Amino acid sequence: MMKIRLLILAICCSLVARADWPVGKGRFVVLPGFNYFSTAGFFNKNGTRVPQGKDNSFSSYYFGVGITHGLARNLDIFTNVPYIQQNQVSFGTKTTRAGLGDVALGLAFH
User: Fold this and answer.
1) What per-residue string of b and e applies to 15-47 under the rule 16 or more CB within 10 Å gives b?
2) What dihedral do alpha carbons 4, 5, 8, 10 form, nearest 10°?
3) 49 contacts 81 by C-beta, under 8 angstroms
4) How far apart are CA 52 and CA 92, in angstroms?
5) Residue 14 has pLDDT above 70, yes or no
6) DSSP string covering the chain, please?
7) Are 40 and 52 in contact (CB under 8 A)?
8) Cβ proximity of 94 and 73 under 8 Å
9) Tens-digit pLDDT profile for residues 40-90
10) Residue 100: pLDDT above 90?
11) Structure pTM?
12) pLDDT-based confidence at residue 110 (cuts at 50, 70, 90)
């Protein structure tokens, strides 16, 4: 019962929490981003970490740009455009997949 009360309290407090960053009318912010991930193993269905082996690998690259433009003192329009590339080598066969990720477009009211 205590966990439920704490959850309700946390939800109510988060409804009024603000952590925004207004850009300002007529201003632009451009935020480039990059992320690299590689691994030498994976988790099987039992949750045990299994090494991939010396001829197997996986890597992922993320390149993204976020753009925000201030429409008014307290209203911004924003977008995020990610490009993702994943490389996998499995038993000597290399597979590469790349393309746009989930593009976001929205309004932020401050």
Assistant:
1) eeeeeeebbeeeeeeeeeeeeeeeeeeeeeeee
2) -110
3) no
4) 12
5) no
6) -HHHHHHHHHHHHHHH--------TT-EEEEEEEEEEEESEEE-TTS-EEE--TT-EEEEEEEEEEEEEEEETTEEEEEEEEEEEEEEEETTEEEEEEEE---EEEEEE-
7) yes
8) no
9) 888 899 999 988 888 888 999 999 999 999 999 989 999 999 999 999 998
10) yes
11) 0.69
12) confident
Of 99, 106, 60, which is closest to residue 82 (Cα–Cα)? 99
**Best CA proximity match to 110, nearest among 82, 78, 66:** 78
Tokens of 31: 């935020």
